[in-house]
Structure formats: structure tokens, C-alpha cells
Amino acid sequence: MITPVLPSYSRAPLSFVKGEGAWMVEADGRRFLDFGAGIAVTALGHAHPALVKALTDQAGALWHTSNLYNVPQQQALAERLVEHTFADTVFMCNSGTEAGELAVKMARKYWYEKGQPERNVIVTFEGSFHGRSLGMISAAGGEKLTKGFGPLLPGFRHLPFGDMDALAEAAKAPDLAAIMVEPVQGEGGIRPLSDSALMRMREICDETGALLILDEIQCGMGRTGKLFAHEWAGISPDIMMVAKGIGGGFPLGALLATEEAALGMTPGTHGSTYGGNPLGCAVGCAVIDEITRDGFLDDVNRRAGLLRQKLEGLVAGHPDIFTGIRGQGFMLGLICKAPNLDVVKAGYDAEILTVPGGDNVVRLLPSLTITEEEIAEGIDRLDRAATALERTLQGAD
Ligand code: PLP
Hints:
alpha/beta; Aspartate Aminotransferase, domain 1; 2 domains; 4-stranded mixed β-sheet; 12 helices; 38% helix; globular; binds pyridoxal-5'-phosphate
């Protein structure tokens, strides 16, 4: 049945009217503990005072100015990103998908400018997710994303996730422009690449000249306990897609690049009406300032360790529901034995929000500011959810 809102989502019967830190209030007054943070979006929780102030101050001063002019807030955010990362230059956009589209354009333009336009193929990996535009579903591949939407865009070659032999073979192709990969697959079910695989990818790119594009839209902005996940492997990309957490809930994305990778992006090659608008960039600056504050990420790692430890107990206590945990920091996947959608639904009944992922995983992506008490409360609620689901499953036997 068609509905006023296009029915492209199958939605839970929940309507939230207020958010406070790690809590969300439903229209009927129930208080849900938010272990999803949107989907890794509200990195600093709901209604963080510094973010509310940045947004409302900016809203009172100037909402919009065209990119025909300098945008001081955009300049300030770009400077912060350059200061804290490998990047020399940044393009601001409004979503992760847009960052991905520019990543592909940039990589192709790079080889065009180098006089090798035939180097236009981007290698990507099965199970990945890069967004919902035609370009990004073509990039990720997979029937779930692409069925019915053909013809897809050419110029992507899909390899099994983490298959380094297949990658070494694919890297011999003379048309290779870039490798595009999530250091930790999010939608795919919190599937991390090993440090050694990331290091090998960097080596392959160095050997072939191909550009390394990292999609840190879900795993970046402190989520794994480093500002960006690739830092754990001690490597850096040539191009990186960022979104979600960087806006703390305000629509904001960014494409970061080295000067070399960005060499083809001259005036007139790319643009956006809203990308880099003063509101989004003011919020983005406040988010970065908080996450890069001395000691912030140390504390994230400490609390994430606590969550991990408690989750081990939860998994051990419910062997019919869970089989393990994977991930890092506050990007964790509960590997389920029971159907993951049933676990998420049982969570709703216990008033905790989690997010299903591929590979029968339930994603736990709480805000980076979640407290120890809230972690303990979250475990209690997950325990209640698992116990209720066990009873249902036993009843069904
Ligand atoms: N890439 C990854 C890894 C993501 O997790 C997402 C969103 O879930 C995207 C890209 C697309 O981002 P957006 O929905 O902001 O366009």
C-alpha cells in the first residue's frame, strides 16, 4: 500500500520526540536507551550542549551562503580536518553518498590528468556499503542493493572481502585506478579488515600507483577509539569519505584527500548548493573540537573496554541467542544465533535501540559519550531482551 512517505523503509512502530544524551523519548513517554545513535550518527549523544550552541548561534547569524563566496565556517572545519588527518584538502558535502561520488570522480580525474584515462576501474569488496546513488550501488554491487536498478555504472570490480590474493591479482590489471574499502564494514555486519590487510592494501597502492580510498563514513570520527579507524593500522589513505558522526546528527559529509590525489579537481569540476553550508560546518567544528579534546578518545577506549567486557558475559549467558562479538571501540557487532531482527525487536520491548546488520549481526553503536552507568543499564536491557527471546524460542519448540 502506498503511503504519504515513500515506503522504502520497513519501520519499527516507534516515534521519537526528544533526545537527551544516550536517551530517546518516545511519543508515549517511554525512555529508550540509544545503542544505535541513529546509525553511528549522533556521536556525541542527543542535544549535546556544545552542538546545540554552535547550531543555534549560527542559525541566528547566517544559514546559507553560496559556494560562490568564502564560507568561514567551512574554512575552519577544513583546517581542523587537515590538522588532525593525512589530508591536505577537503570538500564538504551533505551525506556519505555524496562523499563517495566525489571519491570516484576524483580518482578517475587523477588518472585522466596523468594522461592515463584508461585507468578508470575502482576495485571494491563484497558486503560493502557506500550509499544508495547509482554510482554507490554500482560500487558496492550485491543483489540486495542493485536488483532492478540496472543498467549499473561500469568501472567497478568486486572482490571477496579481505581476499588479499584476489586483490594482488586484480592489482595487475592495467586499468586499475583505485581501491575503495571500509576499514570496518558497517552495514555488512561489523566486519573489520585486519591491520595487516590494510597495510598490504597500502603497499599494493604504492606499488601500482593506484589510489587508496577509505570509506570511514561509519567507522570514523572516534567510533573505533581512534579519530579514524585506519590509524590502528598505522597507514593513511589517499582519499577518505567521512559523514555520519562528523555532523553529530546534522547532515554533513566530507571528502578528504592528499594534494596529489586531488590534483584534477580544479575550479568547475565539482560543486554543491548546500555542501559546506555555515550551519553544518559550525556543528562539524564543535564535533571535532570535542572528539579531539585531550583525553576524550582515551576515555572512549576505557568505556568501550568496559562495554566489551560486559558483553562477553551477556553472550556467555545466552548461548541460544548469541555466538560472539566483533568490532572495536563503540563499533561492536553481536553475532547472533537467533535471527538478528528478532533480537532487535526484543530490544524494543526492553526499551533499548540497536541496529541490525549483515551476516546476522546486531550492531551496537552507542554515542561516544555514553556513561558507565548507561552501559550497565544497556547490558541489563539486552539481558532482558535475550531472556524474553529465549522464552519465545522455547515456546516455539
Ligand atoms: N558508506 C558507509 C560505510 C555507510 O555506512 C553509509 C551509510 O550507512 C554510507 C556510505 C552512505 O552514507 P549516507 O547515507 O549519508 O549517504
